[in-house]
Amino acid sequence: MNASSRQWQHRKRHRVTLRSRLLIVIGALLGHSIASAASCDRSLAEVFEESSASVVRIFTVSIDPFSVIERVQPTVGSGVVVDDDGHIVTNAHVVHEATEVMISGNGEQMFPATVVGLDPITDLAVVRASLPFLELPAATLGDSDTLVIGEEVLAVGYPFGIGKTATRGIVSALERIIPISPFSWRAPFIQTDAAINPGNSGGPLLDSCGQVIGINTLSTEVGQNLGFAVPVNLVRELLPELIEQGHVSRAWHGINGRMVPFPLAMLLEIPPGFLVETIEPGSPAEQ
């Protein structure tokens, strides 16, 4: 074998060795990702049994001054205990403008509660029982940044105010942006096909470990298997401010407008994005 042949064989062995090492590394990384997603995988029955004790039913009453027949507006929602002080996270739309808030744990008896903090922009609120009515365990908050599409989840709550219910699904999508009104939009949602009905609002979305990875907030009336949850990392970020001062402080820019949906953008021949409709006088945006 001449020198050039030996050199070619050496390079070939080097490439094979390098390729093998790369495959080993890639396999290890993939294996680690899969193992991480399923490292605490348990049956959904176990997850529900161990985690549902932290989920409560919330009943509110508000007054509609412009209605005579339906002047009293009852609302039913869900919530989840998030700390040892009895703070309960729910949706802002469940307790917004409520004149009375009642909560119940694992029984039928209702106890009065007060709204500690509220943030309509993210649809998050914190309530707390006026009396230490029950020793409910605090739920474990997970990490929504580690979620992957296809991961199994469990939505727990009180749909239509009936008994505590679990619905099964998967993470269908991440970072979903959904315009709510011409004047506001929310942080990216977790999308799931787990059934979320009226009354589920404010309940937890759990991963296969039983950790809270989102707060169920809404579903669509025109579609099926479309539910959305506020990522728990956003909840964790806003929770101290909601508890301490009752609201979330944000920079004010003075811009009002709406997200431009794709069909409208095509019709007007403009790029999709945010359409500025008004600028408030004296605002930073005007300057």
Description:
The chain is α+β, with helices and mostly antiparallel strands. It has helices spanning 3-38, 44-51, 92-95, 232-245, 262-268; strands at 55-63, 72-81, 87-90, 100-104, 111-119, 124-129, 152-157, 165-176, 179-181, 184-185, 189-192, 204-206, 212-219, 227-231, 255-260, 273-279. Helices cover 24% and strands 34% of the residues. A hairpin with a 6-residue loop joins strand 4 (100-104) and strand 5. The N and C termini lie far apart (80 Å).
- The SS-based structural class is alpha+beta
The first-to-last residue Cα distance is 80 Å
Q: Outline, from the CA principal axes?
A: globular
| Number of separate structural domains | 3
From the 3D structure, determine the CATH topology of the largest domain. Answer: Thrombin, subunit H
CATH architecture of the largest domain: Beta Barrel
- Can you tell me the CATH class of the largest domain? Mainly Beta
Share in β-strands:
25-35%
Kindly provide the radius of gyration, computed on alpha-carbon positions and rounded to a whole number of angstroms.
Answer: 25 Å
CATH superfamily of the largest domain: Trypsin-like serine proteases
Helix segment count?
5
Tally of DSSP β-strands: 16
> How helical, in percent, are the residues?
10-25%
Spatial sequence of strands, sheet with the most strands: 1-2-3-6-5-4
Residue-averaged pLDDT, rounded? 79
Spell the H/E element sequence: HHEEEHEEEEEEEEEEEHEHE
Q: Give the low-pLDDT segments.
A: 22-36
